[in-house]
Design a protein that fits this description.
Elements lengths: L1 H27 L3 E4 H28 L11 E4 H25 L5 H27 L4 E4 L1 H31 E4 L1
Helix pairs in contact: 2-3, 2-5, 3-4, 4-5
Length: 180
Amino acid sequence: SSNMIADRLSQKFEAKLQKEMEQYRANLDGRIHITKAQYDAEFEIYRALSKAFFELIVKLNTIFSLQYRPIDENYARNTKKEYDKYCNVLEKAQNVQNLLYENGAFIPEYLYNKYDALFDDISAIFWEYSDLLQKTNPGDIVFDYEWLEARHIKLKEIRNSFISLNSDLRAYLQELTVVE
């Protein structure tokens, strides 16, 4: 019976030492330590943000697509169809904004700032489009080729920023050590 008590105490002491050793090693490697619950929560936030930003960028690309149109001519599109696209993009933008602002406190500040800057760039191009739609008479909306091309170039920059942000996110996730 005294041997059993001694064994139990020894096992508890050994487990405590093992845990302290893991924490010490973890501090040496300079990694960020989070619990599994925190990791799972953050990962879901990043997954939702990535999906929402991707969907928004795809929808914007459909608005500013240069495909199937003659070069150096004004490009007319049906206002009703454009308004439908506008509503769809607006819905996606609201989803991104809600996800970002609801979860901002749960992600590192530098990643939040990158998401926020990306959303600002997307918002700027979207509101330019919104202004154009509001100034257009019913019927056909006419896109000046140079205006459309400039937005298309800006969308390439937005896509590159999104790719860069995802690269930063992957690097951050690799720095994490999940502790129980």
